[in-house]
Amino acid sequence: MELVRTPKALDIGDEVLLGAGIVARVATLGDEYLHVEVSPGVRMKVARQAIIRTLPPEEQPLDDRIGDEDGDGTGEHPTDVPDDRPPSGGV
């Protein structure tokens, strides 16, 4: 299984891990910089050196993880509160 590739070997659509711990998908490529998509429609410009490694294709796709911050599979944020009741701890 190939876990690490050089930044020069990147392709559009590759899922990568950045040095800051951000998981993103490569959207555009340049010589020194590239754009990565961290959420649908949200892109960041990063230096190629910021890429720690590419993630193998058999890992869970990025799109399946977005919106599931607590990992419980519901897609709800752990601090989401239904609209019909105030947050706990007061009005």
Characteristic terms for this protein:
91 residues, SH3 type barrels, 4% helix, 1 helix, mainly beta, 5-stranded antiparallel β-sheet
Task: Briefly characterize the structure.
With 91 residues, this protein is mainly beta.
Q: Kindly name the structural category.
A: mainly beta
Overall pLDDT score: 75
The biggest beta sheet reads: 5 strands, antiparallel
Which CATH first-tier class of the domain at 7-65 would you pick? Mainly Beta
What is the number of helices?
Answer: 1
Biggest sheet, strands in spatial order? 4-3-2-1-5
Strand-residue fraction? 25-35%
Low-pLDDT ranges? none
Give me the count of strands: 5
How would you characterize this protein structure?
By secondary structure, this protein is mainly beta. It has a domain of 59 residues: SH3 type barrels, CATH 2.30.30. It is 4% helix and 31% strand. It has a five-stranded antiparallel beta sheet with strand order 4-3-2-1-5, with no helix packed on it. β1 and β2 form a beta hairpin. The longest helix has 4 residues. The chain is elongated and about 50 Å long. The mean pLDDT is 75.
